[in-house]
Design a protein that fits this description.
This protein has two domains: 275 residues, Metallo-dependent phosphatases (Purple Acid Phosphatase, chain A, domain 2), CATH 3.60.21; 112 residues, no CATH class. It is 34% helix and 22% strand. The chain contains 13 helices and 17 strands. The protein has a six-stranded mixed β-sheet with strand order 6-5-4-1-13-14. It has a six-stranded mixed β-sheet with strand order 7-8-9-10-12-11. The termini are far apart. The relative contact order is 0.11. Bound molecules: manganese (II) ion. Manganese (II) ion binds next to loops.
């Protein structure tokens, strides 16, 4: 069974002031679909966070529709579960889409009855597909879907305060009553113990600290294909996170992004490969002094600049934009020092109005350059000031 595993697409994401929809479309057109055509997997798994927002705009929905349409055309069975950024708006047409082999999963029905996939070679694999749910939804879901078993079996979830782990324990306990069908693959969207966060995983739906679920609960499963953590990782030899298909933060700019290709044979992973996808947009963090950076060759990557200057620069953002049209973030490496150096010469309102133009200029110059202006510069200033005054008299 050849599985292509991906997650956390976050379609329609905004990156600072930039909309990423066209970059995302390009990624799918020039990287993702050529790969699918090349490797022809038996099944594609998308482990949640399909969209970036629960109420996606028209453009993001169109992008999603485009991707679904292409997946349908390729004729490859695809399983997509909801993540903590998604809502049921995404699964509105799930019944229609099933008829073309696209399974959009938003409840526990495909956990209760696993989705049986048969490979081209005739092997069967059972996929237990668990969409993201918060504690209350999951508790209610378990109570509804396993109503019959609830009366007969032990309940771990009777107490008032339950944790996510209690609910998963309960769920797997119920599944085991009917025996987990093998080979068993679990698809989910949450953090497993030892998982490494990037800091972008939270959303409006998660409040406070996130729970790390112990892997031991899932001992009956041969493979876990997970979403939620944005960096690629493999834990305990059976838990795979693909991470996002392209970088979504400057911190992730240098991290490899892509999808997992996994071959499963008789309950064992016989082959695994992380296939990198090249991002259609470049993300760069540039560090240096303003005077060096302004001489850089023109670069239209998405850029964050960290200024190493120790004194404030006048309008650095606007000026650096002439070299970096997609400059998105600018900060000083030593922000505290900058603030204090500016404060030394900061004037009170009273002082400000008591100074003449030349004194104000001297003060301003000192704030920016941290030294007094030279006499030739002062002469120049006086000339301009005189010219300016004459011109304003004429008006
Ligand atoms: Mn995510």
């Amino acid at each position: 069974m050849r599985i292509l595993h991906t997650s956390d697409w976050h379609l329609g994401k905004n990156f600072y002031s930039k909309k990423l929809t066209s970059a995302q479309l390009k990624l799918f057109e020039s990287e993702f679909f050529p790969l699918i055509k090349d490797v022809k997997p038996d099944v594609v798994i998308v482990s949640g966070d399909i969209m970036d927002k629960p109420n996606p705009d028209y453009e993001s929905q169109q992008l999603f529709k485009e991707i679904l349409y292409k997946l349908g055309q390729e004729g490859i069975l695809t399983i997509l579960i909801l993540g903590n950024h998604d809502s049921k708006r995404v699964t509105l047409y799930k019944e229609f889409l099933q008829s073309v082999g696209l399974f959009l999963i938003d409840d526990l029905s495909w956990v209760k009855t696993p989705l049986k996939v048969t490979s081209k070679k005739g092997e069967n694999v059972y996929f237990y597909c668990m969409p993201y749910m918060d504690i209350y939804e999951l508790r209610e879901g378990i109570n509804t879907f396993w109503k019959d078993l609830k009366r007969r079996l032990t309940l771990f979830t009777n107490k008032e305060e339950v944790e996510l782990s209690d609910l998963f324990k309960q769920l797997v306990y119920f599944l085991n009553y009917e025996k987990v069908k093998k080979p068993a693959v679990f698809i989910g969207h949450f953090a497993i113990e030892k998982g490494e966060f990037t800091g972008e995983e939270s959303s409006i739906k998660t409040i406070g600290m996130e729970e790390l679920v112990p892997v031991g609960i899932f001992k009956d499963f041969d493979l876990m294909l997970m979403g939620h953590l944005h960096r690629v990782q493999k834990l305990f030899n059976k838990v795979y996170y693909s991470g996002t298909p392209m970088p979504y933060s400057f911190e992730e700019a240098e991290v490899k992004k892509g999808v997992w290709l996994i071959e499963l044979k008789c309950e064992k992973v016989t082959k695994e490969e992380f296939v990198p996808l090249s991002s259609p947009v470049r993300f760069k963090v540039l560090k240096g002094k303003f005077n060096e950076l302004i001489r850089f060759p023109k670069d239209d990557s998405y850029i964050k600049v960290v200024l190493e200057d120790e004194t404030p620069i006048l309008h650095p953002f606007e000026r650096l934009r002439s070299v970096f049209p997609n400059l998105l973030v600018l900060e000083y490496e030593n922000q505290d020092k900058i603030v204090s150096s500016a404060q030394v010469t900061q004037l009170s309102t009273e002082e400000f109005f008591s100074l003449n133009e030349e004194e104000l200029f001297k003060n301003f110059y000192f704030t920016v350059e941290n030294k007094a202006p030279s006499s030739s510069l002062l002469d120049l200033f006086r000339d301009y000031l005189e010219e300016f005054k004459k011109a304003s008299l004429k008006l």
